[in-house]
Amino acid sequence: MGHRLPRDERISTHCGLVARSFGTEGIILSGEKDQGLLDSIKRITNKWGGPFEVKYEKNWKKVIKEFKSKGYYIILLTMYGINLPNIIDKIRKKTNLLVIIGSEKIPGEVYDLCDAQIAVGNQPHSEIAALSIFLDWYQEGRELKKDFCGKIKVIPQEKGKKTEEN
Amino acid sequence: MGHRLPRDERISTHCGLVARSFGTEGIILSGEKDQGLLDSIKRITNKWGGPFEVKYEKNWKKVIKEFKSKGYYIILLTMYGINLPNIIDKIRKKTNLLVIIGSEKIPGEVYDLCDAQIAVGNQPHSEIAALSIFLDWYQEGRELKKDFCGKIKVIPQEKGKKTEEN
Question: What pTM, to 2 d.p., does this model score?
Answer without folding.
Answer: 0.98
